[in-house]
Specification:
The protein has about 350 residues and is of the alpha/beta class. It contains 11 helices and 16 strands.
Length: about 350
């Protein structure tokens, strides 16, 4: 199962809104084939492993980290392929939370005489597909807050200059993070100040959906975030100009009104989930990050810390109303990674 989980991770950034799944076929005590879900719309892991096997599979055991599907979608049901192959036993880490499956795949296999074990490395499997499980259990995407700061906690100087606080290596890693998320989100302030493209350029990977909070639709029509092949969604309010909205829609930009004075962040996340966005990378700026923290919408924090001291400047997070250290937001499952002279700190707010 550990091998299946390692294989599954290879699909990161390519398979969403499907889960990451790996499969291992074992016969007579040795691995005879492996597979994983490589790209959304492509073969599922079980089918990939079966197709790559060289000999008969009668009597083999299949290890897979998620329950085999039993419904028609982009591809045929995996349960049918397993039955045709003559596989004797299936070992599963997690039941699929998708209501189209949700135990039905296991029932079909057992009803045809296949032995099924469930729960092997269950916690590891769940952690791998956190975003997928959150989508089906809460109807919300997994939200990661990401920023780069100086050693003294500044994301920009008093003039707003921030290029570049982090190293080139950290910026490449940040682009890798974009490629692993379904959407990247910033506020209109960031767009007006930095005119970012919000795409994946420094590494190989797919572009996320660009989500911009813009309560008055004040984004310039020539903004880089409105250009290129990457899709853009503008979240605005009832106060926005209908004329500007019409112009943006003519340019192929999706605009949703969600809120009266300010964009309703929780409502926006719900709307994104309905669009099969399972993960969101919130890149700022300060006001946006602060509001997400205030409303308890952040699951994970990733901070690039550069060994630079700026002094007075723009802090990453504004006032959260915390007046006692004992009430501070405390990260769990913290890990650190050295990237050149920078340090990446990653931790979870929600288990």
């Amino acid at each position: 199962m550990k091998l299946a989980l390692r294989l599954a991770r290879r699909g990161a950034g390519w398979v969403s809104p499907n889960p990451m799944v790996g499969a291992v076929l074992v016969k007579d005590g040795r691995v005879i084939s492996t597979g994983y879900h490589r790209r959304y719309g492509g073969d599922h892991a079980e089918v990939d492993a079966i197709k790559r096997s060289k000999g008969p599979l009668k009597g083999a055991t299949l290890y897979v980290n998620l329950e085999p599907c039993c419904h028609w979608g982009k591809t045929p049901p995996c349960t049918e392929a397993i039955l045709r192959a003559g596989i004797e036993e299936v070992v599963v880490a997690n039941l699929d939370p998708n209501p189209l499956v949700a135990g039905k795949g296991i029932e079909i296999l057992r009803s045809h005489g296949i032995k099924v074990r469930v729960g092997v490395l269950e916690e590891e499997g769940r952690l791998l597909n956190r975003a997928y499980f959150k989508h089906y259990e809460e109807g919300l995407p997994l939200v990661t807050a990401k920023w780069a700061q100086s050693l003294d906690g500044r994301i920009a100087t008093t003039t707003g200059d921030s290029k570049w606080i982090s190293s080139e290596g950290s910026r490449r890693y940040a682009h890798r993070l974009r490629s692993l998320h379904d959407a990247v989100l910033v506020g209109i302030g960031t767009v007006l100040r930095d005119d970012p493209e919000l795409t994946v350029r420094l590494v190989k990977g797919k572009n996320p959906l660009r989500v911009i909070l813009d309560s008055r639709l004040s984004i310039p029509l020539e903004a880089k975030a409105l250009k290129g092949e990457a899709k853009t969604l503008l979240a605005t309010t009832e106060k926005a100009s209908p004329e500007k909205e019409a112009i943006l829609r003519q340019k192929g930009i999706e605009v949703i009104r969600i809120g009266c004075e300010r964009v309703d962040l929780f409502g926006l996340l719900k709307a994104l989930a309905e669009r099969k966005v399972l993960s969101v990378l919130v890149e700022g700026g300060r006001e946006v990050l602060t509001e997400f923290f205030k409303k308890g919408l952040i699951d994970r924090v990733m901070v690039f810390v550069s060994p630079k001291i700026i002094g007075q400047g723009v802090e990453a997070i504004g006032d959260l109303g915390i007046r006692e250290v004992g009430r501070a937001i405390e990260l769990k499952s913290v890990r650190t990674l050295r990237i050149g002279q920078d340090l990446l700190l990653e931790g979870w707010i929600k288990p």
